Amino acid sequence: MADQRVKEEALQILGLFQALPRLVVFDLDYTLWPFYCECRSKKDMPRLYPQARGILHALKDKGIDIAIASRSPTPDIAKAFLEKLELQSSFVAQEIFSSWTHKTEHFQRIHRRTGLPFKSILFFDDEDRNIEAVSNMGVTSVHVGNAVNLEAFHLGLKSFAKNSITPVASSSRK
What is the largest CA-CA distance in the chain? Predict the structure, then answer.
């Protein structure tokens, strides 16, 4: 029932903005769930942060695609957890691989797969270095303290809407 309430609140938040992303990308560890995959076993039953599932469902209901960009030395465990959480088919792209670079490579792959311009994407991650690197690509990027939640979601959409306003559009307002 909590998921439904969060979904309804997330849909209300989405309704506040005219400019919405075409794709929302999430990190996994300490963004959608409270652990590092490499510290877990495939046998474990994972759990999402309390508001994550409702937010994911709201995005899908609104017709906004979702994707994963996650750096992990154990992508097999991450994928197994997405399967156990019945989320595997929710994502248009799952870039989960071990890379010691910033997440820019993940986003290059997502761009090639979806054809979407970086400026039409919103990204949530718990690491500042990823936020900075991906922001430099033109993606609106939001640092989540240790969990994606309704507050971070609202902040992300607000930042995306602000970044979507072009000087021409803003100067035509009176």
Answer: 59
